[in-house]
Design brief:
Helices cover 22% and strands 16% of the residues. It has one domain. A hairpin with an 8-residue loop joins strand 1 and strand 2. The strands form three sheets. The chain has a five-stranded antiparallel sheet with strand order 1-2-3-4-8. A three-stranded antiparallel sheet has the order 6-5-7. Strands 9-10 form a two-stranded antiparallel sheet. The N and C termini lie far apart (47 Å). Helix 2 packs antiparallel against helix 3. It has six helices and ten strands; from the N terminus they run H-H-H-H-E-E-E-E-E-E-H-E-E-E-E-H. 37% of the residues are buried. It is an alpha+beta fold and 279 residues long.
Length: 279
């Protein structure tokens, strides 16, 4: 018997998980109400009009985002609800770090800091670790897409009180083909092909810099050309309604976040599109 693809596997699991999604779940409940009231359109998270934001991969050349089928919309809604329910365990950056989430990226414009579960992983003490073909055994970074457990949590600052604003999935694939992910094809994945990580704290301190420049920063370049990332901005107060899967949030400014309702024009972009977001 053939083995189902990663995308099919998560779809089958999500269908089973439907039985456990409570009726009050935000996205799942809203999608059913929307279908009943206006079946010719879709809720905003199933009707993207954006262009993917910064770092659009050549794999999407000539493609456009659009309206999902109802089945795909419902499936993604379930995945979003489960991801939100899971991430609510760590509402602040301090909560995440106290529970073992490791900071891999400090606050950066458009994305905030990135935290992943690395466990006891330490490439400096692993003689088999290859910076040119890196693997991360024992961590949450692998070749499996799991909609309800994103690899990265993102917050609105570097301090312990910083609040959760978004997620990112980070999946090992090939250099040419994005991984199977969410249903419908609006989740455009991107790559950060070379990142410089510090040797002592495994923190990103550079992107696409030379080996000598990385060494001068106390780091090692990792070839991540086979790793793909996708964001979903679904946390309450931080939705990007023009394109739920855009890879940069326009209101995470370099100088700090602009919260919804404070009058910053970035929210017009988040709600209606018109730009790439971030830097």
């Amino acid at each position: 018997m053939s083995t189902p693809s990663r995308g099919l596997r998560w779809r089958l699991v999500a269908i089973v998980a439907l039985l456990t999604v409570v009726a009050s779940s935000c996205y799942s409940a809203q999608v059913l109400q929307h279908e009943a009231n206006d079946p010719t359109t879709r809720p905003w998270w199933c009707m993207s009009t954006g262009n993917g934001g910064h770092h659009v991969d050549p794999a999407y050349a000539g493609q456009t985002k659009g309206m999902l089928s109802w089945s795909d919309c419902k499936l993604n809604s379930m995945g979003f609800d489960m991801a939100l329910s899971w991430a609510e365990q760590w509402p602040t950056l301090g909560d995440a770090e106290a529970d073992g989430w490791h900071r891999m990226v400090n606050y950066v414009e458009g994305m905030g800091p990135h935290h992943a579960r690395l466990g006891t992983f330490d490439p400096t003490n692993d003689p088999t670790f290859d910076p040119d073909d890196p693997l991360f055994p024992g961590t949450n970074i692998d070749d499996q897409f799991t909609s309800w457990e994103p690899e990265f949590l993102m917050y609105d600052g570097n301090g312990p009180d910083a609040e959760l604003v978004g997620f990112a999935w980070f999946v090992l694939g090939t250099e040419t083909t994005p991984p199977d992910g969410f249903a419908g094809g609006n989740d455009w994945w991107h790559r950060h092909e070379s990142l410089c990580f510090t040797n002592d704290s495994f923190l990103v301190v550079g992107e696409n810099i030379t080996d000598s420049a990385c060494t001068s920063r106390g780091g090692t370049n990792l070839d991540l050309s086979k790793y793909w990332m996708s964001h979903a901005w679904i946390v309450d107060g931080w939705q990007t309604k023009a394109d739920v899967f855009t890879n940069h949030h326009p209101c995470l400014h370099a100088g700090g976040p602009a919260t919804h309702g404070d009058g910053d024009p970035c929210w017009d972009e988040a709600d209606n599109g018109g730009g790439h977001g971030g830097h």
